[in-house]
Amino acid sequence: MSTASAFADRGSKEQIETGSAFAPKFDEKGLIPAIATDFDSGEVLMQAWMNAEALAKTIEIGEAVYWSRSRQELWHKGATSGHTQIVKELRTDCDQDSIWLRVEQKGGAACHVGYRSCFYRRIPVGAQAAGDAELEVTESEKAYDPAAVYGKKSH
Amino acid sequence: MSTASAFADRGSKEQIETGSAFAPKFDEKGLIPAIATDFDSGEVLMQAWMNAEALAKTIEIGEAVYWSRSRQELWHKGATSGHTQIVKELRTDCDQDSIWLRVEQKGGAACHVGYRSCFYRRIPVGAQAAGDAELEVTESEKAYDPAAVYGKKSH
C-alpha cells in the first residue's frame, strides 16, 4: 500500500491541472518537495522531502512523515523529539509535483537547531546586498534547547 | 556576478547552521527549491526552483526570478502576465538548501491556471483516503482568466 502504485497514474496536462485524481510526480530519485507551514500563523516551518511511502503514510496517519535524504530512511517527524506535526490540511499544486502541509506543530518548534522554524535567517535584498549577503537571525530566542532533547550532540 | 561564485563557499555544519555567511546549496542540477508565500496571508502561492543566477537576480532586483525547468531559462515571474512578486523578505533554512520568499503578489494571482495559489486542491487525509484520494478544489473562483492574459493556449 505504501508504494508509488498507491497513487493514480499521471494523465494529460489538463487532467493533472484540473482533475480530481491525485497523481503526484516524484523526481528521478523518487522524491517530491514537501512544505510545512504552521496552521495558525502561516509561517513556513520547514521544507523536506517525501517518497511515495512517506506520502502515503502521511495521508494514512495524519502526521507528517518525510524521507530523510541524509539517513536514507522514513522519518516520522517528532518520533525522537516529540515534536510531531499534526496535518490539519494537505494540498498539492497545479502540476502535482509539490506538497503543502498545514500543520499543528507539537512542542512549539520544527527545527533541530531549536528555533520554531528552520527559516530563522533573513537574506538581505537589494542591489548592494547581492554580492556579499550577511544573514540576519530573525528570531529573538530558541523555542527549546536541542541538547536537552537530543543529547549533547545534535543530530 | 550572477554565478554560483556570487555566494560563499559551504563551510562546516555549524557554520552553515549558525553562521552569517550565505552559502546556499544547489542540487546536482544546480537548483534550489524556492517557496513563495503571500506576505499578508501567509498562504503558499507556489513552489518553484532557482539556480544561482536566478537567486542572485532575485536578491539584486527584489522581485522573484526563478529557473524554468520546462523552458530551461531564467523566468522573471510576471514578465508576461504582469503578475510579478515583490520580495518583502527572503529567508533560508538551517542547512541553507531551501529558499523562502515572502512576497506581495501583483495581479492577485500566482498560478497560470488562474487561481491565487498554485495549491488550489486539497488531498483528503485519513486511513480511508490513503488508497483512493480524490482531490478537492479549495477555491470558489479563479482570480483571473488565463485566456485573457496568455491567449487561448495557456502556457
Automatic annotation (TrEMBL), chains A, B:
Give the residues the record marks as binding Zn(2+): 94, 111, 118
> Where does the Phosphoribosyl-AMP cyclohydrolase domain start and stop, copy by copy?
46-120
Which Gene3D superfamilies would you find in this protein's record?
A: Phosphoribosyl-AMP cyclohydrolase
Q: What is its EC number?
A: 3.5.4.19
Query: Which free-text remark accompanies the cofactor?
Result: Binds 1 zinc ion per subunit.
- InterPro entries this protein is in? PRA-CH, PRib_AMP_CycHydrolase_dom, PRib_AMP_CycHydrolase_sf
> Which controlled-vocabulary keywords does the entry list?
Amino-acid biosynthesis, Cytoplasm, Histidine biosynthesis, Hydrolase, Magnesium, Metal-binding, Zinc
Keyword Zinc applies = yes
Q: Where in the cell is it found?
A: Cytoplasm
UniProt binding sites for Mg(2+): 93, 95, 97
Magnesium recorded as keyword = yes
**One Gene Ontology term of the molecular function aspect:** magnesium ion binding
- Which reactions appear under catalytic activity for this entry? 1-(5-phospho-beta-D-ribosyl)-ATP + H2O = 1-(5-phospho-beta-D-ribosyl)-5'-AMP + diphosphate + H(+); 1-(5-phospho-beta-D-ribosyl)-5'-AMP + H2O = 1-(5-phospho-beta-D-ribosyl)-5-[(5-phospho-beta-D-ribosylamino)methylideneamino]imidazole-4-carboxamide
**What is one Gene Ontology biological process annotated in the Swiss-Prot or TrEMBL record?**
L-histidine biosynthetic process
- Co-factor(s): Zn(2+); Mg(2+)
Pathway entry: Amino-acid biosynthesis; L-histidine biosynthesis; L-histidine from 5-phospho-alpha-D-ribose 1-diphosphate: step 2/9; Amino-acid biosynthesis; L-histidine biosynthesis; L-histidine from 5-phospho-alpha-D-ribose 1-diphosphate: step 3/9
According to the record's subunit comment, the protein's assembly and interactions are: Homodimer.
Explain the purpose of this protein: Catalyzes the hydrolysis of the adenine ring of phosphoribosyl-AMP.
Q: State the family it belongs to.
A: Belongs to the PRA-CH family.
NCBIfam families reported for this sequence: PRK00051.1 (NF000768)
Q: PANTHER family from the xrefs? A: HISTIDINE BIOSYNTHESIS BIFUNCTIONAL PROTEIN, HISTIDINE BIOSYNTHESIS BIFUNCTIONAL PROTEIN HIS7
What this protein is called in its record is Phosphoribosyl-AMP cyclohydrolase
Organism of provenance? Stratiformator vulcanicus
